[in-house]
Amino acid sequence: GAGVSQSPSNKVTEKGKDVELRCDPISGHTALYWYRQSLGQGLEFLIYFQGNSAPDKSGLPSDRFSAERTGGSVSTLTIQRTQQEDSAVYLCASSLRSTGTSIYNEQFFGPGTRLTVL
Amino acid sequence: GENVEQHPSTLSVQEGDSAVIKCTYSDSASNYFPWYKQELGKRPQLIIDIRSNVGEKKDQRIAVTLNKTAKHFSLHITETQPEDSAVYFCAANGGYSTLTFGKGTMLLVSP
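Predict the joint structure of the above. Result:
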């Protein structure tokens, strides 16, 4: 079946502009994650959605970053007033429902969006 | 929150040799430890994972060991091949549904 998809694959923007990044998770996956991957760095957790529960926003680096998930499926990550340090690859992942500490399901990653802020 | 340290950052081996990547974690509540492989220009993919009720898990040429007392876990790849060249990430869950990743190890396997 179709995997996680993200768009655009590349985005070049000017400092101060707003950008929107889109993620389409695997159908039936209720958990959705956003990560940021900078050169030479690991995967930095940004935000986590699980079904209709309030998202875990603990990884968002500033109030310029926000995300929403409509209808429990597609998610959009928005970065306002972009800065050069926002340049990175933004990865989305989805998984089947995770319930507390007893069940873990593989996270399937999308191809990422490479954001370049000039 | 959880903190995961991964070593080494780069590892070069000859084809056929073994490779070992080590990770430590800080939160004793962590009970799920996956390993992801990311080939150049591609997305990360899960290669193996271990839960806290298991000390070792094998899948063909790869194995993972977990020492909960010392809070460290390791990835072992035997009989390495050039196609094993990639960046490998370890992660721990801190007892929750989100993962904290290490900074990655670039493995280079020379023919």
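The interface with chain A takes residues 1, 4, 6, 29, 31-32, 34, 42-46, 49, 51, 89, 91, 93, 95-104 of chain B (CB under 8 Å).
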